[in-house]
Write a structure and sequence with these properties.
388 residues; alpha/beta; 3-stranded mixed sheet; 32% helix; glycosyltransferase activity; Glycosyltransferase; transmembrane helix; glycosyltransferase; glycoprotein
């Protein structure tokens, strides 16, 4: 009689060893796959860098020839032109140079006008009591202004005729910057028109601009006919369509950015030659594209992408909405000073609205310090309502 063996836990000698499952090396197949993919990738890269010249070699990749390989891989980075290299050296040096220290930093208010300024009385109220903290420059392109405020006397600079939509508008802006840069105390530069008004008192505007870590230059992508539709391929290679931008001409900028505009000849010449009314069958308006595109190329992180001058394009016409005396109310002005989202309207079918919060030094703030376009008849109501 056979005696059953007693099973004992931990007794290896009596424990039956069951046949285990057959194990395969878990790394064997992935290693072969990785090696094969690496080899093929290396082969393709080498073929891209050193393309085969014979048709037989090209057939290895495709019967359509070697061109197919370049379709798979990203295009090589283009070589910069000599002008671009020189331009980037100047841009880098200006941006890396510490701002000029001034014991009496001022804002340069630059007025671009055909003649007299209808709101001089209002600006006189705005400036009063802040002597030494601002400078005034007037580019009057059609007739010598008649002044009512002492702050504007003898402040005209050399000017040339300016035509709406023509490149002469950009030249006028640069001329104003050049004169204002002669004063080393001018640290921020504001471009204004004859129809612009201030929305806040001087202290508010001064602190908003002088303590900002950016320039307020309008800049956005407009894929429509009055945006990228104005782009000319003759600006290549320095200006590509993907970098072409649009924006309002009414800017404020820090001194370093004003110096960049003065130093630029490369992009200036491209817009002078190829962005003008009816050039190449396009109606390119340089003052809406030159500075937005320029700063998008050289210092996109240094601009706010909106203008601190309120302009209402909601009517979607060639010119913005204008305000008559009956339009000017306390509620209208209060609304302007409370807006903290800027709106860009594209020119494609339907006109898409692009909304952007106004971020000032990392904090959401009201967008606007100035507004346009106001008719001269609104002066008395504005003086009463604003009461600086």
């Amino acid at each position: 009689m056979k005696v059953a063996k007693e099973w004992r836990l931990g007794s290896m000698g009596d424990t039956k060893i069951l046949p285990g499952s057959r194990h395969r090396s878990p790394l064997k197949r992935p290693i072969w796959i990785i090696l094969m993919v690496s080899f093929v990738s290396l082969f393709l890269v080498c073929a891209y860098i050193y393309p085969p010249n014979s048709n037989v070699a090209c057939y290895v990749f495709s019967s359509r020839g070697c061109k197919v390989i370049t379709d798979w891989l990203p295009p090589p980075k283009r070589e910069l032109t000599d002008e671009e290299i020189m331009s980037r050296v100047v841009v880098r040096d200006i941006l890396d140079t510490p701002p000029v220290e001034s014991k009496n930093p001022k804002i340069a208010f630059m007025f671009l006008t055909p003649g007299s300024l209808p709101f001089e009385k209002l600006w006189d109220m705005f400036f009063r009591g802040n002597e030494g903290r601002f400078s005034v420059y007037i580019h009057a392109s059609k007739e010598k202004p008649v002044h009512v405020s002492p702050y504007f006397l003898n402040r005209e600079i050399h000017s040339s005729p300016v035509t709406w939509g023509a490149f002469s508008m950009v030249d006028a802006e640069r001329r104003l910057l050049a004169y204002a840069l002669k004063d080393p105390d001018n640290q921020h530069f504001v471009l204004l028109s004859d129809s612009c008004i201030p929305l806040h008192n001087f202290d508010y505007v001064y602190n908003y601009l002088m303590h900002a870590n950016m320039s307020f230059i309008d800049c956005f992508v407009d894929p429509g006919p009055h945006g990228n539709g104005r782009y000319s391929t003759r600006m290549l290679p320095e200006v590509e369509e993907k970098d072409f931008r649009k924006g309002a001409q009414w800017f404020t900028m820090r001194r370093q950015h004003a110096l960049l505009v003065m130093a630029d000849s490369l992009y200036y010449s491209r817009f002078r030659d190829y962005c003008r009314p009816f050039a190449d069958g396009k109606n390119c308006i340089a003052d809406e594209h030159y500075l937005p595109t320029f700063f998008n190329l050289v210092d996109p992180g240094g601009i706010a992408n909106w203008s601190v001058t309120r302009v209402d394009w909601s009517e979607r016409k060639w010119h913005p909405k204008s305000y008559r005396a009956q339009d000017v109310t306390y509620d209208l002005l209060r609304n302007f000073t409370s807006i903290d989202m800027t709106t860009h309207i594209t020119s494609n079918a339907g006109g898409e609205e692009l909304l952007q919060p106004c971020i000032w030094n990392g904090t959401r703030r009201p967008c606007y310090l100035f507004a346009r376009k106001f008719y001269p008849e609104t002066l008395d109501k504005l003086v009463t309502l604003l009461n600086f």
